[in-house]
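Model the whole thing, not chain by chain.
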Amino acid sequence: MANLSFTEVLGPVMIGPSSSHTAGAAKLGLIASMINNNNFDKIDIILHGSFAQTYRGHGTDKAIIGGILGMKPDDINIRNSISIAAEKKLLVNITEDDLGYYHPNTAKLIFYNADGSTHTIIGSSTGGGSIQIVEIDSFKISFTGEYPTLIINHIDRKGIISEITTVLADNNINVATMNVSRLQKNKEASIIIESDSIIPQNVSERLKTIDDVKSVRVINIGAEI
Amino acid sequence: MMFNTGKELLELTNKYDCSISDILIKKEMEIFESTEEEILEKTKKIYDVMKNSASESILHPEKYKGHIIGGDAIKMKKYADNNDTYCGETINLAMARAFSTSEVNASMGLICAAPTAGASGIIPAAIITGSEKINADEISTLKALLTSAAIGELITKNATVSGAEGGCQAETGTAAAMAAAALVELKGGSPKASLHASSIALKNVMGLVCDPIAGLVESPCAKRNASGVTNAMISADMALAGVESIVPFDEMVETMLKVGRSLPNTLKETALGGIAITKTAKALEKKIFNK
């Protein structure tokens, strides 16, 4: 049996009322905004399943909005996130829809960035405040945000994975898990790497210089939320 | 320093001649490479959140209204202050504190989900009130909280603490079992007596269903937190008096899981059965969700 730390039993410390519908929802918004990694002035939040049915009662909407504004699940300002978003002139559009075969507690977030770009992120709140990001811009992926995570978009070609992992090894970063996917051969592809240690800025800069790497995003949040 | 059952936990306390919290600290140090100071510091942070949630809705009841509940913590506190009650000031005050955390939780305030948000009122109320009652020092109080974590770990590993999986017995029953063991250790009871207290607390609510009105963590949750802390305190008192659970802790946990699995889904956090489908509950649901 896996060992539990006492902080997992006596925790998380969170804004109520529900670990899945409030704490997990805030974490989902927070990680999604880190993936978007851009200034945005509009967001569409599409709620699926139990999120769609019960979000008003559990403050799921406030929690997701708080998360995308950078609040952690224990931030007391989550209560007021809707008015904080309005003060920041952020346009928030919440709708309910059936997204298909996803976990019952799932949300799709579409960020509209100031530079004209958009990013679509789908994630699920899987219980006890834990989450899983399952889709970024149509790429099916899977990571929990519990480890420092690298998201690399690149063009599919032979040898690129070993070039990337060599950079990590040279910088003493251990790969805990790696998830590789592509739209089709020699076209856009994506790699998600979860690591045991924080990924420094210079490493992500170095990864960007590899041929055919299109973008590198780092989520150094790890176990702190 | 692993323990996967209550029996193994007791063997370790016998082997090292120490308390349950001492074993938990040793385990954390060994497996998660932390020091005793770091562990107690983290525990203090958790306890501070608990103390705050257990008093907030008594001090500022107007700030903590849920969709259905609110105001019961202050009513209970005023009644306890009269010192003219059936259960006495200690239990009534503990109930007021449990209501407070439940009301803070229902209105998007800060709580510690120990072991879950829905059952988060029980452990703070029990440990704060118990510690106050016997004038325990801070370290013993923090260690009692760690004892509750050891029991929570055992129930998480061998059964479930989720209402959706095991009903309310798994949430408020587990919280009461965790708190009962903590109260026994706090008052100088043996590790064996702690496990008897946990076992008694679990049996007292065996089969309790999870049937929240409108699916919200409010009613009957808040009152089950208030009765849950009472369950913890009477179970601790029984064990401290020398009363033993006929069925040992590990068997009680195993059968709690079996009962949870055999409960229909309508009685496991779906709001499709029990109190949630009463006429009054359905009318409230309609009003809240406007449908």
